[in-house]
Amino acid sequence: MTSASAKFGSLKSGSVKFGIAQLNPIVGDLVGNGDRLLSAVQKLATQDVQLVLTPELSICGYPPRDLLMNHQFVRDMDLAIADLAKKIPHDVAVLVGTVSLNPQASQSGGKPLFNSAALLQGGEVRQIFQKRLLPTYDVFDEDRYFAVGEGGQVFTLKLQDQSSLRVGVTICEDIWNDEKFWGKRNYVDDPVAELAQKEVDLLVNLSASPYAVGKQKLRQAMLSHSAIVHNLPLLYANQVGANDDLIFDGRSMAFNRDGELIACGKGFEEDLLVIDFDQVASNPNFSSYESDDAEIFAALVLGVRDYVQKCRFSKVVIGLSGGIDSALVAAIATEAIGKENVLGVLMPSPYSSDHSITDAIALAQNLGIATETIPIEPMMSAFNISLANIFADRSSDVTEENLQSRIRGSLLMAISNKFGHLLLSTGNKSEVSVGYCTLYGDMNGGLAAIADVPKTRVFDLCEWLNRTNYPLAIKQGVTEVIPVNIITKPPSAELKPDQLDQDSLPPYDILDDILHKLIDQHLSSAEIINSGHEPATVDRVVRLVKIAEFKRRQAAPGLKITGRAFGSGWRMPIASKVTF
Predict the structure, then answer these.
(1) What are the pLDDT digits (tens) for 452-507?
(2) Please, what's the b/e burial string for 170-185 (b: 16 or more CB within 10 A of its CB; e: otherwise)?
(3) Do 252 and 108 share a structural domain?
(4) Catalytic center residues
(5) pLDDT band at residue 570 under the 50/70/90 scheme
(6) Is residue 406 located within the same domain as residue 280?
């Protein structure tokens, strides 16, 4: 349990403690999430907190998506909130993320629900607050389900000394629209500014803000700005955990009215915070990471662990090629669920180099994971014989290369089916972007662990693992996690003699820069060329991204770690005619 405190500022009361329950819900598990909420509140109550803040939609987990269209699910949520209200200690007030019905929906034709926060106290639901700003960009689609909430999001918190505080309630996006901070407004309303005008004593925000590398610094700066501009202390509760392709990093925060960060929850794990603004701060956990690589690795480990556990798997299977992508995925999986739950499968072909096999075995030994070896030459021969007549007048080409990948994909899926293991695909963002991957082959799997990790970052992560003496290596008594030869050798799919990735693609540093400008920065081909890249290379990369859309539509869910991923926030048409 993390504790922190600092000067709250001028209050109408004596010392008061606040709690933040940074929780990892399972989407749809109303009973389990309710039990988790209750346990957290009970623990915080022993620290004499008087108000507990939980994340957005904490009773059902975020994002519930089309579960919200199930009327019984919504009714059950209401029952779960009422049941929770009866069970929590009566002397503690709790703000729980939930949904509430829009009574005007039938008359107005509006959405039937509000994204809400319920104030539970004294055994009942005392008040309901509604989210005002509904995001529809990137991974968000809240206008699909929710009506825009109304203003007046304030309640009075009666304290143990009989004094009171006026608390202003916001939900996630409500606090992301400060014109002075952003230089513009995305919405007409600014709920925080409106609450400040109501002379509240404290701002709170229930949030489910997905992770992206570098986003925490932005969040902290924005929330600090809000506290300073409005001269109000601020509590921010963020969800933690991974749900499908989205990772939530937690790192809930508390700021005093001077905008100073006085408490921060742990990153990528559950945490309980106790904040006493009227006492001197003592060693708050600011949850910092020594590098972006360390933060990304922690995010991917959480993403894999939660996907495996929440989808009720216990073990995973990975195709080990001796290359750097499968090496990184194996390291992530081993850290996420334990070496005893990871199976690596080597599937050499006649084109596989000796070092690919030895490198894959060395990796498995470093990680302590089990391996199986299945040569695929007999199956390649069988395919060639079966297709000999129809392919008689055709020369060998990428078709035969893809067959090797599809043979491997079929073997991995057979193992997955037989033993109930989750198959992790190992393609990186660079390959997925330009279609340098095979449908029904290396794209097979239930989760694409590094599908949002560019190839250059894959190298960085592996070098970081080795450089930092990561505990994975220490546990096995070795000096490195990833064998050095895997990092230093030129990348190759090894589907034909002497094949290298850069026979088909630009160098990865060039490719990744073009992709970043195209995908993340939304630049046109002309703008990318003007930045210094060769026109022919840019045109080719842009074309490859466009024609690979049909592949990405059929890919496994990929964990999101950047601001723009090929997942729930990517909504490109397949059949289209467009130039960038």
Answers:
(1) 999 999 999 999 999 886 666 666 677 789 999 999 988 776 666 766 767 789 99
(2) bbbbbbbbbeebeeee
(3) yes
(4) 56, 131, 172
(5) very high
(6) no
